[in-house]
Write a structure and sequence with these properties.
This protein is mostly beta strands. It has two helices and nine strands. Strand 4 and strand 5 form a beta hairpin. It is globular, with a radius of gyration of 15 Å.
Amino acid sequence: MMLMRRTLLAAGAATLLAGATGVAWAATPAKGPNIELTIIHATYVDGGASIDSRLARLPDLTKSEPFTHYNVFRLLDRKQLPLEAGKPVAYALVNGRNVAVTLGSVSQGDAGEKRYQLEAHIGEPGKAAYLKGLQVTLGENQAFYVGGQSFQGGTLFLELVVLP
């Protein structure tokens, strides 16, 4: 599990994934960027591979660890949540855990592009944190993946993308 996260980070991927039931959000328009959270269920089955057509970023990643261990990828849910510096946004996952993402800061990259510092936590009420605090910095529309949570004979991957 830790190796998966390190592998994904080292590969430069970006997103956060889990499983999904929604949390109610205020209907006010977001003033800053949004985080797009995609929940992917990955399994291995004999007799063929399939990737949900709504997972556009995934085909290139299936050639890399840890995605090579799976041949069926199904989108469970996708939500866009508003990000505001210092205020965590939370989302309930299908496996009973919750993911919380906090925007730390926004900076300028060498080419003048915006870079977003995010911190992600995955936990379950009454239990030790599954992911205590993962910090990443990524540009707009870059995906970051976190995986390793068992779910229905497979694994959940979370994909996080900062949208302007």
